[in-house]
Amino acid sequence: MATEATDILIRIIRGQDELKSEQAQIAGTLEAQGAILRLLAEQLGVVIGKLTPELGDGPSMQELLAELVARVGDNGALLRRIDRRTDSMATSLPDDVVRAMKGTSGTNGYGAAAGHGADGSAAS
Predict the structure, then answer these.
(1) What is the CA 22 to chain-centroid distance, rounded?
(2) pTM above threshold 0.70
């Protein structure tokens, strides 16, 4: 019985030693990852610094927004013109179709004006 207890204690101590070893490896990995993250944060800071204009350099946010609003307004006027033109085309479409149909040849090349129907047969 004493040997069983001793064996159990020895296994527990070995397990604790393995845990301590694994914990040390985890701590080392976390430290390395922390160093990488610090390096990335520094590099990101440099990039952001280069991309951030100095005060007075370039257009301000208000100027950019004003330009966008002006461009949207210009596009709105163009779209209104396109809408009006499309509407006028739709209203003149029936007259255009009638004119086109009067001058169109039939399927066999005979026009309605030549005394033939739309299908090319002789009109009665």
Answers:
(1) 45
(2) no
> What does the block give as tokens for 90?
């739709």
Q: Output the 3-class SS for 7-44.
A: HHHHHHHHHHHHHHHHHHHHHHHHHHHHHHHHHHHHHH
> Greatest CA span in the chain, whole angstroms?
126
Neighbouring C-beta atoms of residue 110, cutoff 10 Å: 18
Reduced to 3 states (helix: H, G, I; strand: E, B; else coil), residue 111 is: strand
Tell me, rounded to whole angstroms, the distance of Cα 91 from its chain centroid. 38
Name the one residue in this structure whose structure tokens are 């739309």. Answer: 118
Tens of pLDDT along 38-78?
A: 999 999 999 988 888 777 777 777 888 899 888 888 888 88
SS3 106: coil
